[in-house]
Specification:
Elements: E1 2-11, E2 19-21, E3 24-26, H1 40-52, H2 58-61, H3 74-87, E4 90-100, H4 110-121, E5 125-130, H5 136-139, E6 143-154
Parallel strand pairs: 4-5
Antiparallel strand pairs: 1-6, 2-3, 4-6
Helix pairs in contact: 1-3, 3-4
């Protein structure tokens, strides 16, 4: 068995973009800035899986300097990562995520996020939402961060 830790953070965008978290679009919420759709949850899960399999990080495989990934769906990028992990001889046991943000509340959409991620990963993915309680940039509502831990085993 191997364990990987993933992390991602994005500020809220100054332009009108949709907010996507865990493959779920949050209508009417301010989106995140970034090269792809900036889904911090999918990015953290991808990094955790890549780390667990010893395959580097998301920036190595999908650099933000490559125009091919501009506006890309992060949940689809996660699908590519899962294929890489499987091709390296690993199966995913589970992934656990902690998302830190002031708003929106994740609880009403948690099951939908977990389902979208679980389907893409092919193993259970859990999502927890936490607030930064007013501390720092996340506490001031300037962006969203996510930590993820993945367990993989040799297939």
């Amino acid at each position: 068995m191997r364990v990987g830790i993933g992390f991602d953070v994005h500020p809220f965008a100054d332009v009108n973009r949709p907010l996507v978290l865990g493959g779920v679009r949050f209508e009417g919420e301010r989106g995140l800035a970034g090269h792809s759709d900036s889904d911090v949850v999918a990015h953290a899960v991808a990094d955790a899986l890549l780390g667990a399999a010893g395959l580097g990080d998301i920036g190595m495989h999908f650099p933000d300097t490559d125009p091919a990934w501009a506006g890309a769906s992060s949940i689809e990028l996660l699908g590519h990562v899962v294929a890489m992990v499987r091709d390296a001889g690993y199966s995913v046991g589970n992934v656990d995520c902690t998302v830190v943000l002031e708003a929106p509340k994740l609880a009403p959409r948690r099951e939908e996020m977990q389902q979208a991620l679980t389907v893409m990963v092919g193993a259970p993915v859990t999502v927890k939402g936490k607030r930064a309680e007013g501390l720092g940039a996340l506490g001031r509502g300037e962006g969203v961060a996510c930590w993820a831990v993945a367990l993989v085993d040799q297939a």
